[in-house]
Amino acid sequence: MDKLPVYLIFGSGGILGEAFLDKLEGPLYAYRVFAFDHQRIDITDQAQIHPIMEYVRPTIVINCAAVNDEDLCQEAKAGAFSVNSRGPQLLAEACKKYGAKLVHFSSCEVFDGKSCTPYGERHTTKPVNILGQSKISGEQAIKDALDDYLIIRPGMLFSYESPSCIPSWIAQAERGEEIAVLDDTLMSPTYSVDLIEATLDLMVTEAKGIFHIANSDAASRQSFAEATLTLSGLKTKVFAVNPDSQKFFKAPVPKYSVLSTRKYSQTVNKPIRPWLDALKHCLFNMHRYKP
């Protein structure tokens, strides 16, 4: 009998970590799962990583630990690079030592937003903010340290779990507050549930390298927010803010971050559903939408 796969998840308390745990709730004879949030294991501390790797002996390490807030990264550059670059480097080095595969999540914000066609995995990276810079640094650190890795670049992540934009917008609307979003930006909404399923599909095929994962069809941030509120039965004004305005947003954001998922679809031979269908599923889980 082959040895059971052993998954070791870091950052299990975040949106992606919780989504992985929800998806991996299955028969114990299929695999084993160990999960730690940032309060229990700090991925920027080598002295914490190696003992747990030695004890668990994972076949696959899944890194969901990250700082993904553009404004927070812009204000705390050292912290952003510590978690988004140094952490992945230490995990990659540990994976090499203990013979594990590393699955890591990067960001669509590694691009400058000047394209007019969806970004593929081979497009040149040129981030315009600290978030993107720290993410691409983390990607390079993994590639320098390890051969067996899977780097996923999602689009704009959304979920029914906080701190996703969906619960936040609904809460604002219920308080009677108007909602500000960036205008003149086109992106690829990415539902956490679909992101995890697609990542597991790639893991089953033993895929390696960099893959873009996002729901199909592009959306502006304003149209995405308006669809969220409309489907939730809420009537709240969504107004667009110039990306260069410092009143609402501190970090520059790429005006175009639409991702091509062709490589993923060709690898697993299946598409990813449109973001509108995924949004309905998300709101249904929140008891906000009835088909």
- How much is the average pLDDT? 92
| Broad shape | globular
Largest sheet descriptor: 6 strands, parallel
Number of helices: 10
The helix content is: 25-40%
Class of secondary structure makeup? alpha/beta
Strand tally: 13
Strand content: 15-25%
Sequence of secondary-structure elements: EHEHEHHEHEEHEEEHEEHEEHH
How much is the radius of gyration in Å? 19 Å
Q: What is the CATH T-level topology of the domain at 6-161 and 191-216 and 257-273? A: Rossmann fold
Strand order of the largest sheet: 2-1-3-4-5-10
Straight-line N-to-C gap: 45 Å
Question: Which runs of at least 5 residues are low in confidence (pLDDT < 50)?
Answer: none
Query: Which CATH class of the domain at 6-161 and 191-216 and 257-273?
Result: Alpha Beta
What would you say the CATH architecture of the domain at 6-161 and 191-216 and 257-273 is?
Answer: 3-Layer(aba) Sandwich
